[in-house]
Amino acid sequence: MDKATLIGLALGVVLLFWGMLGSADFQVFISISSVLITGGGTIAATMISFRFEQVMKAFQLFQIAMKEKLPSSQEVISVLVSLAEKARKEGLLALEEESERFEDPFFRKGIQLVVDGTDPQLVKSILETELLFLEERHKLGRSIFETMGTFAPAFGLIGTLIGLVAMLVNLDDPKKVGPGMAVALLTTLYGAIIANLFCLPVANKLKLRSQEEILLKEVIIEGILSIQAGDNPRIVEEKLKSFFAPQVREAFERERETGERVITLRREAGG
């Protein structure tokens, strides 16, 4: 799993437990009925808002985003520059063997289109269309977690209102008012935790991950078109570096000077 997500979740849970244990008996913070009202209500409302397969797909996207590591910008530039060098020396058809070694289907498809002699405008149109729909899928997955983050506090409030009604029924018994009020407020607490420690942070992480992936794919499109146009590898490199911040360009320069090019974007031959 992504280290920042794992550390953030663990830190949030530890701080919550620390706060609860330091303020009262931990047992008072446990209420199964409050969990069911808040958690179950949030899931139910999300299911009503989206199709079942869309909700399942969003959780799959979350798992993929947390487990899979994107290639670094240096890695992508290195691979594209090496392909530009090969194309200049041996021609575009020499890239066909290389394309079969790419793990990224988007990268493999782009190179294969070039090898097949597809018109540059058509190559650009096909790849940009694929990128557009990728972005739309990411938006849908993110919106599901944002929706859950909206519903969770709302169901927490609903649970609190239910608890308050039950408490008012026993208003003539002062001994039941305090405990009843505490239980009623638990659903609001649960709703706030679900929204702010899980749903909304996950939506933000998916948004960041999507932006990073789309930027890399835009670099890939530019690199592939530049290779197809027959640009000098040095020109290809300068074009691609312009997509990134100065720190990334400096890192790439240092990597090139030390000869430590990372090319795990491609499978090793026979792998």
TrEMBL record:
It holds the Pfam family MotA_ExbB. It is found in: Cell membrane. InterPro entries: Flag_MotA_CS, MotA-like, MotA_ExbB_proton_chnl. It is a multi-pass membrane protein. The keyword Repeat does not apply. Keywords: Cell membrane, Flagellar rotation, Membrane, Transmembrane, Transmembrane helix, Transport. Its main location: membrane. It comes from the Bacteria. Belongs to the MotA family. This is Motility protein A.
